[in-house]
Structure prediction request, 255 residues.
Amino acid sequence: MTAKKSRPLILVSNDDGIFSNGIKALAETAAEFGDIEVVAPDRQQSAVGHAITVTTPLRARPFQLDNRFSGRAVNGTPADCIKLAHDKLLDRKPDLVVSGINHGSNAGINIIYSGTVSAATEGTVLGYPSIAFSCTDYDEDADMTGCREAARRVIRYVLDNGLKRGVTLNVNAPSGPLKGLRWARQAESRYVEEFEGRVDPHNRDYYWMTGKFELLEQNGGSDIDILEKGFASITPIQYDLTAKDVLRSLENTEL
Prediction:
């Protein structure tokens, strides 16, 4: 008699916190393909990048998401959540790690700062196929119809085909219906920050960061270009930061 094959286990996390609409949408979509475990921050953790907690103890509180999905709320960063799930919280190792759906774009330079992308990247570091999902609309009640369809297609692709070790997929989609999916590179971009000086009620100085996003290229084919045309973008990214072409050019250079 052939043993019944278990459904894939999909670990779901994010950086907006366990009560965001985005993580509910992603958990519901991922549940079409496997069993779901949610391990996510217990509060907003946007723009924390790949930070990990080393000076305070981590606590994982059991919770139910929409009375449907079981999981843990962690008083740490998105990367903490994936590390803790991997080592202590799951009964079996996940077949896939998904992070999101983030409220706001994680295209261009946002990849560097994003806790959503970092949760997925941590999954890749630990050896799991991993995907980050973001909606370009920052509204908590944004229409995620297209984002969910993009997630559906990309999750199916990765479960069927796997991913090269060391590679994470970063998916961004506009709100509303899905126009289509396009592979794209990361756009060259940056933030031009300004710090506004203020004074609190106790007459103490403090600073509030403002500024604007700046696109440093006008070439087609980037994730931002694809999004501006109304499509969802898929960008393969890696945590190996070596500038390999520069290294090759310098290998025989003596200092």
